[in-house]
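Subject: Re: docking follow-up (fe (ii) ion)

Dear J.,

Thanks for your patience while I sorted out the input files. As discussed at Tuesday's group meeting, I've set up the holo structure prediction with fe (ii) ion included as the bound ligand rather than trying to dock it afterwards. The sequence and the ligand SMILES I used are pasted below, so you can double-check that they match what you have on your end before we go further.
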Amino acid sequence: MCEETVFNDARIVRFVGETFDANSYVLAEEREALIFDAVDSSEMMSRLRAHGIESITVFLTHEHFDHISGLERLRSNFACRVIASAECSKRIQSPKTNLSSIADALISMHDHSEIAKKVPEFSTSGADAIFNGDGEFEWHNHKINCHSLKGHSLGSACYILDENMLFSGDELLSIPVITRLPGGSTEKYWTKDMPWLESIKNDISLVFPGHGQSGKIEDMIKVNVMPEKFRRQER
Ligand SMILES: [Fe+2]
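The structure tokens for the complex came back this morning:
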């Protein structure tokens, strides 16, 4: 499925992955597309082709299998430049660190199903450009600010488009963020990531998360409840 959001000067189309329910967000200018996360979607592929897209810039929000399941398909169909945090670039290259090696178990836990779906493990090649910490990129007349985070996964990053739209990956959703997967850190989420999210709150008009629909940053922050341990540290 796909849906469209028009905000300021940007027309953003969300595609939901066919194998996993993560989001890709696509902006198009002339024969180029800017994509946040690379889900496996035949609809996205055919819409890109129908639009006459020839080259693509992909920003990855993190290394997990559900956000990179369509990356190699995009690479083999378009001229593709992939940008990610240094840690994400490293971790997409192994089934162990992109978690596809335990995807069956994660999905059955999530669905509460007893029989695990068979998900083949996979890896992709690394990014073409990386950033450490923060980064800044331009694409046509859009500005993209990158900020590395570590709560959901070691390779996580959020992207701010044109200073007011946040592509948050799995660092901020309309459900509580998971920080207990291998490579995640509840401590880093509450001591580093959440303070940063709070610090940009007033600038962000709309959040485009890694799963589910877009929404307001304050609503998504609110669904995460700080564990008592970190509340005590704050006092
Ligand atoms: Fe994730």
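A couple of observations from a first look. Residues 62, 64, 152, 170 surround fe (ii) ion (CB under 6 Å). The mean pLDDT is 93.

Let me know if you'd like me to rerun anything.

Best regards,
T.
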